[in-house]
Give the backbone structure.
Amino acid sequence: MFGARGRGQNMVVLAVVKFGGSFISEKSRKFSVRKRAVQAAFQALSNTRFVLVHGGGSFGHPVASEYGLSGMNTSTSRKGVWETRSAMQRLNDIICQAMAKSGLKPYVVPGVAILDTELRVRPGIKDTLDIISNSGLTPVSYGDVLPVVGGFRIVSGDYLSLTLCSLMQPRRMVFVLDKPGILKDPQDDESLVRRVEPDELESFGHGGSHDVTGGFKYKLKIAKEIAGLGVETAFVSGFNGDALIKSVLGGPFKGTLVVSKK
Ligand SMILES: Nc1ncnc2c1ncn2[C@@H]1O[C@H](COP(=O)(O)OP(=O)(O)O)[C@@H](O)[C@H]1O
Ligand SMILES: [Mg+2]
């Protein structure tokens, strides 16, 4: 629907959608992918125009931490850089094949094409993304190890999502999780928060996974910055195709909406 209408025209990207590692993989099982669930989620999105970002899940995070790579410091471990990127490229290929099976046409734009050695946006990348997206292909990026001044640093999928929101000005940012949204009690799926002001975000996100890019608390910080761009953010479960597509299209959905005052 939107893919066909978008062809050749400058259309607004509906959403930047980030498939979190918590959804695409079982974080406790190294190199595991929830292939069926991921496939079903792409099926739900197969007629929409969006930009995809994915996280590292049980591919990027365990390998990066083995070599001491993180989002907090720079590293010069050549083996660490190679092994971490190699794992991420394998995961990225699995994700792209799942997209293609649903009729989507992914075009991978690695983080190094988006951000320079001081993590500034590279000039011209917006035009690149527009051509890809306006052609009906789906731009795809993912958490990656980037060359920065002094070495290499992990740049998370969450951070790239913020960057892509500032570039594309989508109607929505959608964080896809293994949970139904932001929960008052992370152990209780019934404690879903339906609507939250950006200033209230800091009160959530205790516990959860502590991975090399900061986990859930970091994601909430990013959501606050995205609200500052004038973009609403949704948190939904990847296992709920109905909530996922509704959150992308902009209507009411089962999940958490972070309102933007802008
Ligand atoms: N208040 C909360 N609401 C929902 N999830 C939470 C909350 N606090 C911690 N979490 C944990 O955060 C995880 C998702 O965050 P994170 O691991 O960073 O995700 P991703 O892999 O998608 O980047 C969930 O699986 C959940 O265990
Ligand atoms: Mg994360």
The chain has one domain: 2-258. The two ends are 29 Å apart (CA to CA). The domain at 2-258 is CATH 3.40.1160.10 (Carbamate kinase).
